[in-house]
Amino acid sequence: MKKSVINAIHEILQREFVLEKPANLSFGHYATPIAFSLAKELKKSPMLIAEELCSAFGSQPMFKEVTAIKGYINFKLSETFLDTYATWALQNEERFGSDRQECSILLEYVSANPTGPLHIGHARGAVIGDSLYKIGRHLGYNIVSEYYINDAGNQVDLLGLSLFLAGREHILGLDVTWPEEFYRGEYIIDLAHIAKAELGSVIFEKEDNIATLSVWGKDKMLELIKSNLADVGIVFENFVSEKSLYDQWDASFQKLQRNNKTYQEGGKTWIRSTELGDEKDRVVVRDDGRPTYLAGDIIYHDNKFQRGYDQYINIWGADHHGYIARVKAAINFLGYDENKLEVILAQMVSLLKGGEPYKMSKRAGNFILMSDVVAEIGSDALRFVFLSKKSDTQLEFDIDVFKQEDSNNPIFYINYAHARINQVFAKAGKTIEDVRSIPLVGLNEEAQNLLFSALLLPEVLEDAFSSRQVQKVTEYLKALAASLHKFYNENRVVGSMDEDKLLKLLAMVGLSLRVGLKLIGIRAKEKM
RNA sequence: GCGCUCGUAGCUCAAUUGGAUAGAGCAACGGACUUCGGAUCCGUAGGUUGUAGGUUCGACUCCUGUCGGGCGCACCA
Q1: The pTM is what?
Q2: Distance of alpha carbon A194 from alpha carbon A176, whole angstroms
Q3: For strand B, which nucleotides have at least one atom less than 7 Å from a protein CB?
Q4: CA–C1' gap, A394 and B70, in angstroms
Q5: In order of start, what are the domains of chain A with their CATH numbers?
Q6: More confidently predicted of A396 and A180
Q7: Is residue A408 predicted with pLDDT exceeding 80?
Q8: Closest alpha carbon to A286 in A301, A264, A316
Q9: What is the ipTM of this complex?
């Protein structure tokens, strides 16, 4: 809708302009402040310019009126235009708002180490990533979701060792001395018991078996992570194993060398990341020949960029922000455009329950497990909270709020709006097909405004996606639900003179609610 | 100490990315049912956008200083 409006206006004005929504809908559906930016150039007052530009719009089928108010040019869309659009939307059903885009995007998120279950911090990045993915898909981007598995390096060895020691202590009943660093939490002990069942308790007898336990444990943990994700409706297309990439190290390393971006010092190999704003140069190969974590990420990003996407998005925990500079430097050194990589940081989350800090789970080893929170408030609520806030602010939420079934709980509120619409149709004994082609003309102002709000879904999605701010979708859904409830309270549908028209209007609202919810991973309720 | 980031109503968060009178929900108070399910709606109150400057037609948004919170500052991942 916005696109066609922009095109129509562009045809008249013949120049670039910003199209926005007026603060007050009574001014119009859209507005542009273009007269302000022209004021200097033309040496005239914005009000005058606005009025002159207005008169350039003769009578257009798209606009009911074009007015100049305080320097803004306001556009009011015609009923027929809105009706045509709504009819089209209702024919498209769940595909309303979908489009085609040329751009291909690789979206990487979660990528939690396969050494333990997902905790609540992972959940935020997970649902934001998944919703961006779903919205992007809907909008027609060629977007692919990917999970990078850190299955090489110390932490996997540490997992094996932790399992080994846990098995010796809890299964073989031996005394063990725990090292300073190991994975704690009851999930390790649970996992040791599973290891006993699958591999036999002999596995805990010889230290030689630690390597076997590492690999076995890592696979088990990955399964657990996948099932944690599936519980909130997240399924990845790609999994890329860090370990499997090391074959390509030589190739990546040679690229860096050729560009003279590495050097040897103290028996180690360094990368010149300071050249591109990093705080210091970084070691990529240690003096014993083992590559560092950064080496893995260099290969991984080399691998990503070889696949030739137009854009790359990584969602990382905010504690990794210091890492951005060196990865971007590496991408540049490999000969790619590092600006194609965009990193979204997901900030910390703290949970409350009844106003008190949420108790950490012993099972998790001082982390709050994502699965515990899902068990308590459900996937929909979990998703909704995290999607309602900008990712870059720290957030605090009380899970008790999401157990309430009233207007405190926004999902409930939105679902109720959707269910209400179904209820009205049921009461009227009609279906969407019955009213789809009824022309929406002669509606009162409230009805027209509601219709317009419902038709905004595609541009909200586009805006949310391109700014990577999914909270715009939840905000929109809350506002649309509120408009629906208000309308419902003030206007009787069933039995009214305009019954069919109003039913079509409600169908349109229901469609936008349903599609919007679907794209943030929540299924709209037909009945409460 | 350095770097990144955040600071908006009592609380949790928005604000069309520089636009018109900074908005929602909760909490508080007052209203609306012989109802298409009141699981809803309407109203009142609540703000010097941490703070001091600057940039311009116009600043919550950009710049500088400052105060406060968070996170980093590994050859761990």
Answers
A1: 0.94
A2: 20
A3: 2-7, 12-17, 19-21, 23-27, 32, 36-42, 57-58, 69-77
A4: 8
A5: 2-77 (3.30.1360.70), 410-518 (1.10.730.10)
A6: A180
A7: no
A8: A264
A9: 0.94
